[in-house]
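$ ./design --mode recover --in tokens.txt
reading tokens...
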């Protein structure tokens, strides 16, 4: 947990790019694998997903490894950002080999979240230029949390959402990390107490010291939510993310990790997987370590779900007010211990 983010997994890099002025409030995040790719799986639980290349990840299908995963704002329009990543990979000669040198097809699954219009102009959405910028920014450095990349225009219930990450090291030395763009119809906060759902599952150092918010502050937040025009009409949302590990896994095992990762979302967001969310989690396995036994795999499943929960909590605490959406810090300032 050196950086407490997905880039603690050796070989994993993350790049982010966003636009936040002149009617914009959206962005894209790319998770890059080692050049040889990573075995991958996916689990889609929300009722309104927007995705690319998820059928390819079915264990019954041919391609084993992917070369990047893109998380992006812009709803289905935002899938245009993926082309910028694909073209960069192609230029670098990275992809599924199809013949001679340079004859490759980069495999880049993706998922979108809904943030259209949150910066003021409905038509503004990530495109190939933004995807290229995210690719060019990729590094193994700690991931910037909050209002960055796919989390730029994110909303979580009545509060500002964002991008979050967390990691863990298993007793056998296996590393697992999660990166989540929190943009949910449901709330990340208990409406009765103001407690962040994820907080009780977080580790020391994940979050600042938190208290329950002042009752008057909580009542004011409830009143704002009750009169928020964005919440009075059927909202569109979607929480998307990537789990990565250096374990050696099959495509089927990666799909299982992604599925259990959704348990982590369910601990941090309520309700989750609604018909108005397209909640989607990917898993990447770089396969740098020896295969693990059954009990080791079970440990990995539990740690992956925990990382997802912790990443959601860290996203919400790192988010800053924007686009008329108040952050947890601004809405519940009394919960932050002095």
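writing sequence...
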């Amino acid at each position: 947990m050196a950086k407490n983010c997905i880039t603690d997994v050796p070989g994993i890099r993350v790049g982010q790019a966003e636009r936040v002025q002149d009617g914009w409030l959206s962005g894209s995040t790319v998770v890059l694998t080692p050049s040889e790719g990573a075995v991958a799986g996916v689990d889609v639980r929300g009722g309104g997903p927007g995705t690319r290349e998820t059928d390819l990840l079915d264990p019954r299908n041919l391609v084993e490894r992917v070369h990047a995963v893109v998380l992006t704002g812009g709803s289905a329009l935002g899938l245009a950002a993926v082309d910028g990543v694909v073209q960069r990979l192609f230029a670098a000669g990275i992809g599924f080999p199809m013949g001679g040198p340079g004859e490759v097809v980069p495999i880049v699954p993706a998922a979108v979240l809904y943030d259209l219009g949150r910066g003021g102009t409905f038509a503004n959405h990530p495109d190939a230029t933004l995807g290229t910028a995210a690719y060019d920014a990729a590094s193994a450095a700690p991931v910037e949390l909050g209002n960055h990349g796919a989390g730029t225009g994110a909303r979580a219930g009545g509060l500002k959402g964002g991008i979050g990450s967390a990691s863990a090291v298993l007793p056998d030395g296996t590393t697992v990390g999660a990166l989540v763009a929190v943009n949910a119809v449901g709330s990340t906060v208990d409406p009765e107490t103001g407690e962040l759902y994820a907080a009780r599952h977080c580790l020391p150092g994940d979050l600042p010291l938190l208290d329950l918010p002042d009752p008057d502050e909580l009542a004011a937040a409830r009143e704002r939510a009750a009169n928020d025009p964005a919440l009075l009409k059927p909202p569109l949302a979607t929480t998307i993310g990537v789990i990565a590990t250096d374990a050696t896994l099959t495509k089927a095992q990666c799909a299982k990790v992604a599925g259990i990762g959704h348990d982590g979302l369910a601990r941090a967001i309520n309700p989750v997987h609604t018909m108005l969310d397209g909640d989607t989690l990917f898993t990447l396995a770089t396969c740098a370590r020896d295969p693990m036994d059954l009990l080791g795999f079970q440990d990995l499943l539990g740690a992956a779900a925990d990382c997802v929960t912790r990443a959601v909590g860290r996203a919400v605490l790192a988010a800053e007010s924007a686009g008329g959406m108040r952050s947890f810090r601004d809405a519940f300032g009394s919960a932050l211990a002095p």
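exit 0
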